[in-house]
Design brief:
This protein is 24% helix and 24% strand. The chain contains one helix and three strands, in the order E-E-E-H. The chain has one helix at 38-49; strands at 12-15, 21-24, 32-35. The longest helix is centred in the C-terminal third of the chain and has 12 residues, at 38-49.
Length: 50
């Protein structure tokens, strides 16, 4: 059995004025994503880090 390393990065969800959310990662320069809903933004954030 092998051990897994879990790495956690903070994500900041910005509410857009025109609707939807933009997600940025303070620890990772240029890593941004967005989505129309909070749920979609969360899924896209996981994809960006993957």
């Amino acid at each position: 059995m092998t051990k897994s390393n879990i790495v956690t990065y903070p994500a900041v969800f910005h509410d857009n004025e025109v609707g939807g959310y933009t997600v940025t990662f303070p620890d990772i320069e240029d890593a941004t994503t967005s989505g129309q809903t909070l749920g979609e933004s969360l899924v896209n954030a996981a994809i960006v880090l993957g």
